[in-house]
Specification:
It is a single chain. It contains 15 helices and 20 strands. A hairpin with a 3-residue loop joins strand 13 and strand 14. The N and C termini lie far apart (126 Å). 30% of the residues are buried.
Length: 616
């Protein structure tokens, strides 16, 4: 041991021995102060080994799975800067000299590494290597390893010295490892706890959302039941009176008017529900086209004039300042926005007026259109404004004002359409005095657009009352379908009867088939004769053979006969499916009795023109 301790530590063996004992004593005292694994292993390498005079040392620890050894501290060339290890490596347990010690627990002292195939070169090749196990409770937890460039460098005293240091450090290392494992477990448990809390909060929010959705669904279904049953009661009641021949001619005309009003309301209701379904499914599409501003706004307002007149309200539409004669926007959505805003104003106004004001600002690349709808209605409580555009919400006092009907869909749809068009809407309202909805909508300008301060006279923009509808006004003596033979495939008896009355009343020859198969057979039997149908009206949902299949057969037999789909399916994908089946045009149920014949004629003429034939 004297030779070993004379390596720069002391001139005599006794002094060296005292120095050795003092270093071990100080090492043990310092180890007791350390609690972290990092401090403990670096104290072994930088204090005990370095102060004893060895030029190289690496402390290895066995991984948790017992498969590898990792370098955790070093002294000498492997430790160029503070607590950093140069070219840190891992060694599989059982491989190399260090791996052999970790597997067997045997001390390994190699005098000439050139003769030992187990030697693993790390940072540099050295001839001598000494490796001793670090054990705790009979279990190997690491290896203390040192190398030296001289052959046969390590002595028995060095082995005892390394074994002593490894033994002194083992308890502290195992305790630190246990603490690390414990802290890791605590950390995992804490993460798990936080995750469970997060999941619990998410479940709570999901439960609240589900309860709210269930409540909204219940409320919606109850509201829908009321909204549908109310007009249906009127329709069924007045239809029964008319069927029984009750009342005089004036009363019967009023009852027929009520049938129309309530049917229109139901149609709007169903349309709003379908539109909201499209919005919720992310199916809102913008189809931009060139539109005439004055006509589009005027038409949209005018269709509600009768409703305003019924309540004795003044409905005014006016243009202020210079406005473009044309602009580019989605015609259908723009019209529905105006209709919903004006309809809403009429609904919540019992006396006074509704004023629609349109102005525009000319910008470098587009026009900023401003539409204001102001009413003298009941107004809106400021605490309810944030719920105004939420589906199925009705912000007025439904108990005190139970007579105001509605589903809470109109403004929600309006808001979604405005956003789809890149616009915005604001509301100014005073409870009991009225409200003003202001729409700001960016619109592209077509080429050659002109701006004018004075719009051309338009009867739709007049604020005076509309003439009262008389019974004779509904009689149309024109025969727009005269000379046309129309084949109708329709399985519903009531609808078939209605179509026959409307079409024959407009001069058409009418042939009805109860399903698609009968329609195909009838059409085929007429081929080559003078009675081949000029036009086919096709219901798409029928027994035996549906309209999609029947249309395919008809188009293969006679592609130049137009087929118009007539169906209650009204979503965009339904239109696309009808087009794909071969239908030339598409109409939805319910139909407008007063305009249906002319609509059919227009579609027939359009087909003839597109085909390069005269419609006569």
């Amino acid at each position: 041991m004297t030779d070993t301790l004379n390596r720069g530590l002391a001139p005599t063996g006794e002094i060296a021995r005292r120095r050795y004992l003092d270093i071990l004593h100080q090492f043990t005292l310092r180890q007791s102060r350390f609690s972290t694994l990092d401090d403990i292993v670096w104290n072994i390498a930088k204090t005990a080994i370095a102060e004893l005079g060895f030029v190289d040392c690496v402390v290895y620890l066995v991984s948790d799975d017992g498969a590898t050894l990792r370098q955790v501290a070093a002294h000498g060339p492997k430790n160029p800067v503070d607590r950093e290890i140069f070219h840190e490596i891992t060694i599989p347990v059982g491989e190399g000299i260090v791996g052999h010690v970790a597997k067997t627990g045997e001390v390994q002292c190699v005098g000439d590494a050139r003769r030992d195939p187990r030697y693993i070169k790390d940072d540099d090749f050295r001839l001598s290597e000494l490796a001793v196990p670090i054990t705790h409770a009979g279990r190997i937890i690491g290896v203390l390893d040192s190398e030296h460039p001289e052959a046969n460098f390590f002595s028995d005293e060095d082995i005892q010295l390394f074994t002593t240091i490894a033994s002194l450090a083992s308890n502290r290392i195992e305790t630190a490892l246990a603490m690390e494992r414990l802290e890791s477990t605590v950390e995992r448990l804490e993460k798990a706890r936080l995750q469970l809390e997060l999941q619990a909060e998410e479940l709570r929010e999901s439960r609240l959302a589900a309860e709210a959705a269930s409540e909204a669904k219940t409320s919606f279904l109850a509201n829908m039941s009321h909204e549908i049953r109310t007009p249906m009661t009127a329709i069924v009641g007045f239809a029964g009176l008319l069927a029984d021949g009750k009342g005089d001619s004036e009363e019967q005309f009023k009852w027929r008017s009520q049938l129309t009003v309530n049917a229109d309301y139901l149609q709007d209701l169903i349309g709003n529900i379908l539109d909201m379904s499209s919005v919720e499914n992310g199916m809102v599409e913008v189809n931009t086209e060139e539109v005439a501003l004055q006509s589009l706004v005027g038409d949209s307002v005018e269709i509600l004039r009768a409703r305003a007149n019924t309540k004795g309200l003044t409905l005014t539409c006016q243009f202020v300042g210079e406005v473009p004669d044309r602009l580019a926007t989605d015609r259908v959505k723009f019209r529905e926005i105006i209709v919903n805003l004006v309809s809403n104003a009429i609904k919540y106004t019992e006396a006074g007026s509704i004023t629609v004001t349109v102005s525009a600002e000319q910008l470098p690349e587009h026009s900023s259109l401003k539409v204001s709808v102001r009413d003298t209605g009941i107004g809106i409580d400021t605490t309810q404004l944030d719920k105004l555009f939420v589906p199925f919400n009705r912000v007025h006092d439904t108990t005190r004002l139970a007579g105001i009907e509605g589903t809470g869909l109109g403004l929600a749809l309006t808001y979604q359409f405005i956003k789809a068009l890149g616009g915005d809407i604001s509301v100014i309202s005073t409870l009991g005095e009225g409200s003003e909805f202001v729409l700001i909508l960016p619109c592209a300008l077509p080429e050659g657009v002109s701006w004018s301060d004075a719009a051309a006279p338009n009867p739709f923009l007049q604020s005076g009352p509309s003439p009262v509808l008389k019974e004779t006004d509904v009689v149309n003596s024109e025969q727009p379908l005269e000379g046309l033979h129309i084949l109708c495939c329709e399985d519903s008896e009531p609808i078939a009867l209605l179509l026959e009355v409307l079409l024959t009343g407009a001069g058409a020859q009418f042939t009805r088939c109860v399903n698609g198969a009968k329609g195909v057979q009838r059409f085929e039997s007429l081929l080559g004769s003078s009675s081949v149908p000029d036009l086919v009206l096709m219901d798409m949902q029928m027994p035996v053979m549906n309209g999609y299949q029947a249309t395919g057969h008809l188009k293969r037999m006679q592609p130049d006969v137009p087929v118009i789909a007539l169906t209650a399916f009204a979503l965009k994908e339904d239109v696309d499916r009808c087009r794909s089946a071969g239908c030339d045009h598409y109409l939805t149920k319910p139909i407008q009795a007063g305009t249906f014949a002319q609509q059919v004629r227009s579609l027939y003429d359009e087909f003839q023109e597109a085909s390069g034939r005269s419609a006569y």
